[in-house]
Amino acid sequence: MCGIVAYIGPREAYPILIKGLHRLEYRGYDSAGICLLNDDIRVFKCKGKVSDLEAFVEGKNISGNIGMAHTRWATHGEPNTINAHPHFSQNRTIALIHNGIIENYAVLRSELKNRGYQFTSDTDTEVLVHLIEDIMISEQVAVEEAVRVALNQVIGAYAIVILAKEFPDKIIAARKGSPMVIGIGKGEFFVASDATPLIEYTNNVVYLNDEEIAIIERGKELKIKTIKNQSHSPYIQKLSMSLNEIEKGGFEHFMLKEIYEQPRSIFDSMRGRLHIDQGIVTLGGIRDYEQKILNAKRIIIVACGTSWHAGLVGEYLIEDLARIPVEVEYSSEFRYRNPILNEDDVVIAISQSGETADTLAAIDLAKTKGATVLGICNVVGSSIARATHAGVYTHAGPEIGVASTKAFTAQVAVLTLLGLLLAQKKGTLPNSEFHKLLLELDSIPAKVEQILLLNEKIRDIATIYKDVKNSLYLGRGYNFPVALEGALKLKEISYVHAEGYPAAEMKHGPIALIDEHMPVVFIATRRGIYEKVISNIEEVKARKGKIIAIVTEGDESVKNLADHCIEIPDTEEMLIPLLATIPLQLLSYHIAVMRNCNVDQPRNLAKSVTVE
Question: pTM above the 0.85 mark?
Fold first, then answer.
């Protein structure tokens, strides 16, 4: 949440910064601002998107080869120009941008007011820049030392970048709980919230750890120290992503591109792990912990949003295949409810970004209780990847659209591999069944390609329902999490109220909502509790509800009842979520486009939720 980018080097900073903001705009788009240092500190900021900032600075002096920029997802203070970043210190010689939340900002603000400082914004960020200035003046120290002292007084999460007029060849950056990566080029440095703004210029990066400060100075080596004043040597890593992965590639929206990338992303999540010829599954990232998982009395999956839905599928899979009890928890609830954890529990944390604040806090809690913690995430070098004992990368590639698509199916694919691995090791699945599932899983990418050929038909259905106010999504067994995910997608990007339920639960309340104006989406594939779902469809039809059904190819029973049927290839019951999710993503996408919604940047949402 909030996008940060900064540059120091021989080039003009503005083009690099503004391009970087566009690539980070999925992290926040309430307001945007830019700061350039060239003899003086110049700040330009405005409410709205990065394009509004570009229009605002047109004709202004934007020269300089050191600068920083920010696109905001509002926490403290409404989205407006005053609350936009960067924020100045009182004497306007220091500017700061910030991602995160300073929890004790009210106490610090009161103390600074007593010392004569005045505040123009409602943000917690302005408190921090005034505090840094106060320390520089009162203790007569350089800016990096003032930042270090200030951060020892701060409670909360932050990724910050600071420019000071007194130090025109220096950028100071720091992080705790919010991501930050530093790109190292030839005689130049880049700073950003993630690697997408950097990949065009360098693939050498350093990921800052919590409570680390980077001193980035023109013509000098990168220096890193902790807020406790301990020096660390930078650990330089190579980025594996390419520039074309973060471009739209001819698609109208990133979301549509990422939906169409799923045959490849599902394949990549299984590549080198699913060995049909040998009849085995391998997950190298957790090899050293396999026995711990096999001996676990319980697995607890913690996640948020779409990743939580993937976790629900994982619960069905692991219990079905490996016969290990599984619980799925919202990270935000798990961390605050004093959960019972033991050393023989295994906690699996799922996050697309690897930076989800609530999930990171849940990991910390689980580790303090002695549980083994594994991660499933998409971003190499992310906080969750570093905080967990071991884990598995999904290899879905960069996901720019705020509403997750390919990350979900990649997570489900990895959880399927995990379930199969555990089943084989425990001997809970007959060899014939195990090999049948391996072969079927290997066929999933091709079957996703078949479903994508239905795009125009799904678009036609969307045309009929684009103006509805409410909708229900219903499924049973493995299809219940799919119903939840389908409803979430519609809510996220089209702002249509939608709810997902187990189909049998419809009778316990939601059925009261059904009339001729209510579309009901059924995931009604032939596998599983098929006849029961048909009964639920009959109940909706009797009340004149409009029925959209995801069915198995060749189905006639549901076709005779539903208003619209979307046929997907047949597969094993536990693999249906990998297929049934695709048409629901396309349906939500087309409805959102027809409602003139911003598909890639839905209102009030951000991609990486790095605050509570």
Answer: no
Give the domains, in start order, of the chain with CATH numbers.
Answer: 3-244 (3.60.20.10), 249-450 (3.40.50.10490), 453-597 (3.40.50.10490)
> Closest Cα to residue 501, out of 37, 514, 493?
514
Positive or negative: CA dihedral 585, 587, 588, 589: positive
Sequence-distant (6+) residues with CB within 8 A of 227 are 148, 151, 152, 174, 211, 212, 213
Q: What is the 3-state secondary structure (H, E, C) of 320-343?
A: HHHCCCEEEEEHHHHCCCCCCCCC
Residues in the chain: 612
List Cα–Cα distances, 214 to 190, 229, 421, 473, in angstroms: 12, 12, 42, 48
Spatial CA neighbour of 182 closest among 150, 204, 152, 158: 204
pLDDT at residue 55, rounded to an integer: 94
Taking the C-alpha atoms of residue 450 and residue 568, their distance in angstroms, rounded to an integer, is 8
- Are the CB atoms for 15 and 29 separated by under 8 Å? no
DSSP sequence for 61-88: ----SEEEEEEE--SSS-SSTTTSSPEE
Nearest residue to 316 (alpha-carbon basis) of 424, 448, 416: 416
Please give the positions annotated as active site.
2, 607
- Each residue's pLDDT tens digit, 158-208: 999 999 999 999 999 999 988 899 999 999 999 998 888 898 999 999 999
Decide if 515 contacts 545 (C-beta within 8 A).
yes
